Automatic annotation (TrEMBL), chain A:
This is (2Fe-2S)-binding protein. Residues 5-81 form the 2Fe-2S ferredoxin-type domain. CDD domains: fer2. Keywords: 2Fe-2S, Iron, Iron-sulfur, Metal-binding, Oxidoreductase. One of its GO terms (molecular function) is metal ion binding.
From TrEMBL, chain B:
Residues 35-150 form the Aldehyde oxidase/xanthine dehydrogenase a/b hammerhead domain. This is Xanthine dehydrogenase family protein molybdopterin-binding subunit. The lineage of its organism: Bacteria, Pseudomonadati, Pseudomonadota, Alphaproteobacteria, Hyphomicrobiales. SUPFAM superfamilies: CO dehydrogenase molybdoprotein N-domain-like, Molybdenum cofactor-binding domain. Keywords: Molybdenum, Oxidoreductase. The keyword Chaperone does not apply.
From TrEMBL, chain C:
The keyword Transferase does not apply. Residues 1-177 form the FAD-binding PCMH-type domain. GO terms for molecular function: FAD binding; oxidoreductase activity. It comes from the Bacteria. It comes from Propylenella binzhouense. InterPro entries: CO_DH_flav_C, CO_DH_flav_C_dom_sf, Diverse_Substr_Oxidored, FAD-bd_PCMH, FAD-bd_PCMH-like_sf, FAD-bd_PCMH_sub1, FAD-bd_PCMH_sub2, Mopterin_DH_FAD-bd. The keyword Amino-acid biosynthesis does not apply. It holds the Pfam family CO_deh_flav_C. SMART domains: CO_deh_flav_C. This is Xanthine dehydrogenase family protein subunit M. SUPFAM superfamilies: CO dehydrogenase flavoprotein C-terminal domain-like, FAD-binding/transporter-associated domain-like. Keywords: FAD, Flavoprotein, Oxidoreductase.
């Protein structure tokens, strides 16, 4: 059994110091060690997008980054992005359009949608569909999500971060 | 059809002032979920909790000769390694049969295989450790000696004369057979102007809930009580079954179901590995958590719809379809699932083929067959997609054979809207359906004639687009006829307990469950309407066997129709009780009062008399001011189950518009329309989203989803990268329309909508592909329709 | 699905990285973006002793133009390529292709060096560097060496890199005036690995300099030299296109898997070639699609 490695990082703006095993991926670290269970686990092989988090400002798959790799990084999860208010417009649009059912994909969808809007404040429906194609939703059939992102874009959600 | 059919306007409970019925009220749980603050079973962590990983058979069929735990036991963090034989000491096996599926047989199934593994992925040992990673490390080192046995993989092999019986004690591999013969089938075929015939093949697929199945079982030896946190659709069913197989009283088992990351029928069954988890908790006297990883999910979540159906139809030159005949073979894996059985899907296929049509002559045979593949059972739509693809495929073939437009042939054959109540050839009883209205609405919504013109113009340019139609009926609001009569302890009734709390707000505990479909919103809407409060004043509690009344949960599109009616009756009853208290306080006749928008008012004038909070204050804190012979009852319980009809059938019609690239074989979905009739619509937004999500779960198997097995019974694509779930970019926008024919069995009038979208989507796609390919004179009757299949049909490979 | 236990070291320099490789031999794996390696670890398809994380080596990423050559550091992320004005201007084929790699979150993390060193036959960049006549620079204990892209890909997930070497940079000739490219891929879902894909490049307006590379067809990215020769001989005419498609039979070694049979892949290769020619030479008869069947 290998030795744990000390890391220090900022999670949702709070400093975190921890000992982690090299094999632990970031999503497990956030969920199991920090209790940030809004980062969901759907496949653990980088396909479904449920574990999306921000690493130094970019949305990444939490299951494809090792926790040790986040040493020195700024990590943001759905909890942090919710509390800062930056997702409010998207969250409102998702709720108004019922763009989620079970809610398991939703944190990842929101973070990816926010990244899209930050880069492209008025995406077409095809742009939205393509950008969110790395995020599985098994409940909605996607249309409501596309509608919600479109509505948030119209409401100016792209101005955030 | 009108939405007040059979009722006098103004008298319906649905028409109360400030009614929430028919409004797109946001779900009470939605803000929490958008913030990542749901509480799924996979989020649960308890003190002293340990994790289980299973050693799973690499063979489809193998004798377990010896299990050596030595190397694994020495690894750090390992708490226990338990074999099937050891676990059998605390948990009894089960047999998945129902007495009303006559002849259905299966073999006893253990939580962990004892002597033999019967599919690739069946658990043969459990490893419990401090962490899942450590459990997996040790699972790799559990040395199992297998003696590989010849697997029976294909249905043909299972049915072949002299085939080795997977369970020798059962005699053969036929789990269940049903035959049906109605009318004069032979005569209808003899007298037909045209007979169309083909074999429809359906790829085995599965539900892929984004949150895997998840369970945390906590046995407290001090209380002699087991608390189970589980992502399940049926908490009371699980309570009963866990208790029974652990030799506990039901009162010793509490099942708690919080948020569930998708279920779709996947999470309504009793899984051997979850049962093993609860048994391990009892054995180890500490909380045990099990969340299958995605690779385990693919070999252990139920699969569905592995069917091959030989089918034919007889048609007259005027378009009258005079007979259907089918022969369905389906492979269900080595065991019939418990307790709902794996006979239901084929049974539904037999029930539903030809269902939308008045065709009186119908013959069917279905054979349900054991094989050494993962277990197969009910998944969203249960049998409907198979029956619908067969029926609608035949109808299109018949239309082509006689040169009739596919819309026209459906118009001529559907059961007329004014012919109900009616009985289908298969014996299904229909209270009220609206096929004609639905077809007319769809025709207008999609601008059918314009699409046909567009299609013709594009064909000139070498662009091949197709329109596919599919009518359907859907089983909803099942009575005890579905499971209860067969001896399963699966409740078809549901209960709602409603109380006025001390601030005048309402709390509703109800036995139907929330899986994301919006149950809690719908129940809040019904309660708020029936009782008379703003919806913000209603809190709905679901998913806890210690807390809610007894009931069935979520399956067979029943939550709104059955749970909603229980809630409505509870709301009315509590209103009566509260008005009695108000009448006593105000010295008025309760009948002269009403509750509107959270206030007690004069029924006739609407004048405000007293607030609910004041009533609650007096009833709870100053009952001394009330007459000594008057006891306020501020909590009521009401139950509901349909009795007149075994099922409340709904209906609808799909249309798919797509383009086939005849060079690459790729199919691009362009647009989709669907009209459905689920009776009273409580929340139009939630209904539409159920329909859309359901459609996409039908589009996936039509084009992509397929559990691919090799001849040794190995699943070849059991991961998220190789099993293709629909993604945003390939899915079309879906327009949803409604016709409203309420069921008169309940005051609410709601039928189910959860599975309607899935029923006909694959049929609509296949029909559209064949419509697009019609200039080439070829047709496809197998799904998923891959580029390979398209190009082979076109003779380009 | 948890990765097996392994050790981890984050190196700060190439020398440190090379030393770690030398110390651990075959037991070490380089961790670049991790977008292929980490899933393989989680699935327990690999069990390295130690991961050597080169993410902390500052000078391994970046895009620079000098002397008509674009140099791309191995740790340059797909997202950086996607947004780079230099790449858009000087290697437009790469700019086009990179958009098809996985999904945005994958591109935020995955690197060009990682992708080339992983050598997945269905991924886009290996075929692109073949078409672009890129040079791949590796560093080992004895210093740097340059490997032509056409010599780099040896087989399924197999490259010319030695176990003690690290891919450090890719050098690509900047686009000349008149250069044209075509890029197409067929995947059943957006972002999936290609069932078949083509990256083609003509350094001028004619067919003489045409290079045609395929991905998702065989066990490695492949240059269709015979097809290119046919087009040089016949020009970008219908006859040339037909001859080129015929030549694919000898150029390619299509493989069967769950997504497609070898026959389907060969057929799609022909379709993609026609489509690429239509992009490259829009006025020539070779783009007539109805001739394909």
């Amino acid at each position: 059994m290998t030795k744990p490695i000390a890391i220090s990082l900022a999670v949702n703006g709070e400093p975190v110091e921890a000992l982690v095993r090299p094999r632990q991926h970031l999503a497990d670290f956030l969920r199991d060690t920090l209790g940030l269970t809004g980062t969901h686990i759907g496949c653990e092989h980088g396909v479904c997008g449920a574990c999306s988090v921000r690493l130094d400002g970019d949305v990444v798959r939490g299951c494809l980054v090792l926790a040790v790799q986040a040493d020195g990084a700024q990590v943001e999860t759905i909890e942090g992005a919710s509390d800062s208010g930056e997702l409010a417009s998207l969250q409102h649009a998702f709720a108004a359009r019922n763009a989620l059912q079970c809610g398991y994909c939703t944190p990842g969808m929101l973070l990816n949608a926010a990244e899209l809007l930050a880069r492209n404040p008025s995406p077409s429906r095809d742009d939205i569909r393509q950008h969110l194609s790395g995020n599985y939703c098994r409940c909605t059939g996607y249309q409501a999500i596309v509608d919600a992102v479109e509505a948030a874009a119209r409401a100016g959600a792209g101005g955030a971060p | 059809m009108s939405d007040t059919a059979g009722r006098q306007p103004g008298l319906s409970v649905l028409d109360r002032p400030n009614s929430y019925i028919g409004r797109a009220v946001p779900r009470p749980n939605i803000a929490r979920l958008t913030q990542g603050r749901g509480r799924y079973a996979s989020d649960i962590s308890l003190p002293r909790m340990v994790h289980v990983a299973f050693v799973r058979s690499p063979y489809a069929h193998a004798r377990i000769v010896r299990i050596d735990k030595t190397a694994a036991s020495g690894l750090p963090g390992v708490v226990a390694i338990v074999t099937g034989a050891e676990l059998a000491a605390v948990m009894t096996p089960w047999v998945g049969v129902l007495s009303h599926l006559k002849g259905l047989k299966s073999a006893p199934q253990h939580a962990i295989a004892v002597e033999r593994a019967c599919w690739q992925g069946e658990a043969v040992a459990a490893v419990v450790a401090r962490s899942r990673a450590e459990a997996e490390d040790a699972a790799e080192l559990v040395a199992v000696d297998y003696e590989e046995l010849e697997p029976v993989v294909s249905v043909e092999a299972a049915l072949a004369p002299g085939a080795r019986a997977i369970h020798p004690e059962l005699g053969d591999n036929i789990a269940f057979e049903r035959v049906l013969d109605a009318g004069e089938v032979d005569r209808a075929f003899a007298e037909a102007d045209s007979v169309v015939e083909t074999t429809f093949a359906f790829g085995r697929h599965t539900g892929v809930t984004l949150e895997p199945r998840a369970i945390v079982a906590d046995w407290n030896p001090g209380e002699a009580r087991l608390t189970v946190y589980q992502g399940t659709q049926a908490p009371h069913m699980m309570q009963n079954i866990i208790a029974r197989h652990l030799a506990l009283e039901e009162s010793q088992v509490r099942v708690i179901c919080g948020d569930v990351g998708g279920s779709f029928g996947i999470k309504v069954h009793v899984y051997a590995d979850e049962m093993a988890t609860v048994a391990l908790a009892k054995l180890l006297k500490r909380p045990v958590k099990y969340v299958p990883d995605r690779v385990e999910s693919f070999v252990s979540d139920i699969h569905a719809r592995d069917h091959c159906v030989k089918a034919r139809a007889a048609v007259k030159r005027d378009g009258t379809i005079t007979a259907f005949e089918i022969d369905d073979e389906t492979g269900i894996g080595p065991y019939s699932m418990y307790p709902r059985t794996s006979g239901i899907e084929a049974n539904q296929v037999v029930n539903l083929v030809g269902g939308p049509y008045r065709t009186p002559n119908y013959r069917a045979r279905a054979r349900v067959v054991f094989q050494n593949k993962n277990v197969m059972c009910q998944y969203r739509g249960v049998g409907h997609p198979v029956a619908c693809s067969v029926t609608e495929g035949l109808v299109d073939m018949a239309a082509r054979a006689i040169g009739m437009d596919p819309f026209e042939i459906r118009r001529r054959n559907v059961i007329p809207d004014d012919a109900h109540p009616s009985v289908s050839a298969a014996g299904l009883k229909f209270e009220a359906l609206s096929h004609q209205a639905a077809l007319a609405k769809l025709h207008a919504m999609m601008d059918y004639d314009a699409r046909r013109r567009e299609q013709a113009a594009l064909r000139e340019k070498g662009v091949y687009r197709g329109i596919g139609l599919a009518t359907f009926i859907e089983v909803t609001n099942p009575s005890a006829a579905f499971y209860g009569v067969g001896g399963a302890r699966i409740s078809s009734q549901d209960g709602a307990a409603l109380r006025l709390d001390a601030t005048g707000a309402l709390v509703c505990q109800i036995s139907v469950t929330e899986q994301g479909q919006g149950t809690e919103a719908v129940i809040a809407q019904v309660v708020a309407t029936a009782f008379g409060v703003p919806i913000e004043r209603v809190r709905v509690i679901t998913g806890d066997t210690d807390v809610t009344p007894y009931g069935g949960g979520t399956w067979a599109s029943r939550g709104a129709g059955i749970g909603g009616e229980a809630a409505l009756q509870a709301g009315k009853a509590l209103r009566e009780n509260v008005l009695k208290v108000a009448g006593t306080i105000l010295q008025a006749q309760p009948a002269a009062l009403d509750i509107r928008d959270g206030l007690v008012v004069d029924r006739d004038t609407g004048r405000e008399r007293i607030g609910l909070e004041e009533i609650a204050r007096i009833a709870y804190f100053r009952p001394d001011t009330l007459p000594s012979d008057f006891q306020p009852e501020l909590m009521v319980v009401r139950h509901y189950v349909p009795r007149k009809y075994p099922f409340a059938f709904t209906n609808g019609v799909n249309a798919c518009w797509l383009e086939v690239d005849v060079e690459t074989g790729f199919v691009k979905l362009l647009k989709y329309w669907i009209v459905e009739d689920c009776g009273t619509i409580i929340n139009p937004q939630l209904v539409d989203e159920q329909i859309r999500g359901g459609v996409v779960q039908g589009l996936g198997p039509a084009l992509m989803e397929h559990c691919i097995y090799d001849e040794r019974g190995q699943l070849l694509n059991g991961n998220m990268a190789d099993y293709l779930v629909p993604m945003a970019a390939e899915m079309p926008d879906i327009e949803v329309g409604h016709v409203v024919s309420p069921t008169l069995e309940s005051e609410l009038g709601a039928k189910g909508a959860g599975e309607a979208g899935t029923a006909g989507a694959a049929a609509a796609v296949a029909n559209a592909v064949n419509d697009a390919l019609s200039p080439f004179g070829v047709a496809i009757s197998a799904i998923p329709i891959t580029p390979e299949i398209v190009l082979r049909a076109l003779g380009r490979l | 699905m948890k990765a097996p236990d392994f050790d981890y070291v984050r190196v700060r320099s190439l020398d440190e990285a090379l030393a770690a490789l030398a110390a651990h031999g075959e037991g070490a794996r380089i961790l670049a973006g991790g977008q292929s390696l980490v899933p393989a670890l989680n699935l327990r398809l690999l069990a390295p002793e130690i991961l050597v994380d080169i993410g902390g080596i500052a000078d391994l990423s970046g895009i620079a133009l000098a002397d008509g050559t674009i140099r791309i550091g191995a740790m340059t992320r797909h997202a950086d390529l996607e947004r780079s004005p230099e790449i858009a201007r000087h290697v437009p084929l790469l700019a086009r292709a990179v958009r098809e790699i996985g999904h945005p979150a994958i591109r935020n993390r995955g690197t060009i060096g990682g992708s080339l060193a992983h050598a997945d036959p269905a991924s886009e960049l290996p075929a692109c560097v073949l078409a672009l006549e890129a040079r791949i620079v590796a560093r080992g204990p004895s210093g740097e060496r340059t490997i032509a892209a056409s010599d780099f890909f040896r087989g399924l997930y197999e490259t010319a890199l030695g176990p003690d070497e690290i891919l450090v940079r890719i050098e690509i000739p900047a686009a000349a005036a008149g250069e044209r490219f075509a890029f197409h891929e067929l995947a059943r879902r957006h972002g999936d690995y290609a069932m078949a894909g083509i990256a083609a490049l003509a350094r001028d307006t004619g067919a003489a300099t045409l290079r045609i590379a395929y991905f998702g067809i065989g066990s490695r990215p492949m240059l269709a030299a015979g097809a290119a020769a046919a087009l040089r001989d016949h020009g970008a005419s219908e006859a040339g296109a037909a001859a080129a498609v015929r030549a694919l039979g000898a150029d390619l070694e299509p493989q069967s898997d769950l997504q497609a049979s070898a026959a389907l892949r060969m057929h799609l290769a022909g379709v993609l070639l026609r489509r690429a020619l239509k992009d490259l030479f829009p006025d020539a008869a070779g783009g007539r699609e109805e001739e394909i069947a």
